[in-house]
Specification:
Oligomer: single chain
CATH superfamily: Tetratricopeptide repeat domain
Number of domains: 1
Strand content: under 5%
Helix content: 55-70%
Radius of gyration: 17 Å
Structural class: mainly alpha
CATH topology: Serine Threonine Protein Phosphatase 5, Tetratricopeptide repeat
CATH class: Mainly Alpha
Order of helices and strands: HHHHHHHHH
CATH architecture: Alpha Horseshoe
Length: about 200
């Protein structure tokens, strides 16, 4: 799980200015809201930026930006800057996973594998890992997608022996038919994934 945790999120530094977030007139796009929200969470002078940062990330998540949905889900799951709330965490991570975010698929698989926040289900864990392991035609773009796909493949192999061959074949057919929901547009930018909310 430690490897996975280091692959979730967005590093805003390096593309704050190109996306317009550092300008006087703020960019209303979900990506710009998300990046600005992360920036406020990191600055946190005496905690003053936290409520505004969370609000911006929530707004971006509400506008179907998959990485914002994944981030707010992890914040609720681990109680990062918000009170821990498993139901909200699962709902947000699920929304990100359904948009094709591979890191959210892995996190969802981890939840089903551990059975700590949701009922344990080897078949659901295998399903989520299988989706994350294959490149899916999605509008969610991350820089380290190859590593996330490879990591998901390892996790998939670890749980495969828990299922019968027929159960695995049934899941593979579902995975082949699975299509992601559209996410908020990214304007063609590749997002550098690597750090998480504090």
């Amino acid at each position: 799980m430690a490897i996975f945790r280091s692959t979730v999120g967005v590093t805003p530094f390096g593309f704050l200015a190109p996306c317009g977030c550092a300008s006087v007139r703020p960019d209303p796009s979900p990506l710009a809201q998300y990046v600005r929200g992360l920036h406020l969470l990191r600055q946190r002078p005496a905690g003053s930026g936290v409520p505004a940062g969370i609000r911006l990330i929530r707004q971006a998540a509400g506008e179907n930006l998959a990485m914002a949905q994944d981030r707010i889900g992890l914040m609720y799951l681990y109680g990062l800057d918000v009170p821990a709330n498993t139901a909200r965490a699962v709902r947000w991570i699920h929304r990100a996973a359904e948009r094709g975010a591979p890191a959210a698929q892995v996190q969802f698989g981890n939840l089903y594998r551990s059975g700590r926040q949701v009922p344990q289900s080897w078949s659901r864990a295998y399903y989520r890992y299988s989706i994350a392991a294959k490149p899916v035609l999605s509008d969610v773009r991350i820089q380290n997608s190859v590593q996330v796909h490879a990591f998901a493949g390892q996790l998939r192999r670890q749980v495969a022996h828990r299922l019968s061959a027929s159960a695995r074949a049934r899941i593979e057919r579902r995975v082949a038919r699975w299509q992601p929901l559209p996410s908020a547009p990214y304007s063609g930018r590749i997002i550098n994934v690597g750090d998480r909310a504090r």
